[in-house]
Design a protein that fits this description.
Largest sheet: 9 strands, mixed
Order of helices and strands: EEEEEEEEE
Structural class: mainly beta
Length: 129
């Protein structure tokens, strides 16, 4: 297991916390086998959204997906950009190994104000069966 303590999501923006950005700290251990992540914010939803349980809701609910809808390389997570609007969102980070198997997941509840302000949040990492 390896620790990846900080992911920042911009505009939501992964990085510093300027207006329109939120810092997300992954708490717990990220499996050493994880190589990529599906990062998305699901509108009108709250955690838990564990181990891929909410990904299909992007087809029927407000959803913002990072990395052009593809999986992001773990090495490139800092600076990942999403564009959810104001409201309540579940920010989900599903972690995959090199073979495409879902190995862990993290979820954080976000409240985004109309001016784009949001606070930094913690997202506990949970291993998937």
């Amino acid at each position: 297991m390896r620790r990846r303590p900080w992911v920042a999501i911009a505009a939501l923006a992964i990085g510093c916390n300027a207006p329109g950005e939120v810092g997300v700290t992954l708490t717990g251990e990220v499996p050493a086998t994880a190589t990529s992540a599906l990062v998305y914010a699901l509108g009108d939803a709250t955690c838990p959204c564990r181990c891929g349980a909410c990904a299909a809701q992007c087809a029927t609910s407000p959803c913002a997906i990072a990395c052009g809808g593809a999986r992001c390389d773990l090495a490139d997570l800092e600076g990942v950009s999403l564009a959810p609007g104001p409201g309540l969102w579940a920010l989900v980070i599903d972690l995959y190994d090199a073979d495409g198997a879902l190995v862990a997941s993290a979820c954080a509840n976000l409240a985004i104000a109309s001016d784009g302000a949001s606070s930094a949040v913690n997202a506990p990492v949970e291993t998937c069966p």
